[in-house]
């Protein structure tokens, strides 16, 4: 895990290091979500629309058809 340090301004603002902004495509106006875990850990994550998530799945169509038939019988 990489560690980055930044200071909080008097207005409560923080600067996300340039390397992280570029890596996660965080541009001006982008919304981030802040989570607090039960152990007190604070996480900052980019807000992502479900449609922006890309998934690469390879399906065996014959297996899919078998599963669908199985579910129909149940």
Helix content: 25-40%
Total count of helical runs of at least 4 residues:
2
**How many domains would you count in the coordinates?**
1
Most strands sheet: 2 strands, antiparallel
**Structural class by secondary-structure content:** alpha+beta
CATH class: Mainly Beta
What is the helix/strand order?
HEEH
**Residue-averaged pLDDT, rounded?**
87
Q: Categorize the overall geometry.
A: elongated
CATH topology assignment? Pemi-like Protein 1, Chain: D
Share of β-strand residues: 5-15%
- Work out the radius of gyration: 21 Å
Distance between the termini: 46 Å
What is the correct CATH architecture? Ribbon
Segments where pLDDT lies below 50 for 5+ residues?
Answer: none
Strand order of the largest sheet: 1-2
Number of strands: 2
Any overview of this molecule?
With 74 residues, this protein is α+β, with helices and mostly antiparallel strands. The chain has one domain (18-73): Ribbon (Pemi-like Protein 1, Chain: D), CATH 2.10.260. The chain is 26% helix and 14% strand. The protein contains 2 helices and 2 strands; from the N terminus they run αββα. The chain has helices at residues 18-23, 61-73; strands spanning 32-36, 42-46. Strands 1-2 form a two-stranded antiparallel sheet. The termini are far apart. The relative contact order is 0.09.
């Amino acid at each position: 895990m990489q560690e980055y340090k930044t200071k909080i301004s008097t207005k409560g603002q923080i600067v996300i290091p340039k390397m992280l902004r570029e890596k996660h495509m965080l541009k001006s106006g982008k919304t981030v979500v802040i989570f607090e875990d039960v152990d007190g850990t604070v996480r900052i994550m980019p807000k992502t629309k479900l449609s922006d998530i890309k998934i690469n799945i390879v399906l065996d169509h014959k297996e899919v058809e078998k599963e669908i038939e199985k579910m129909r019988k149940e």
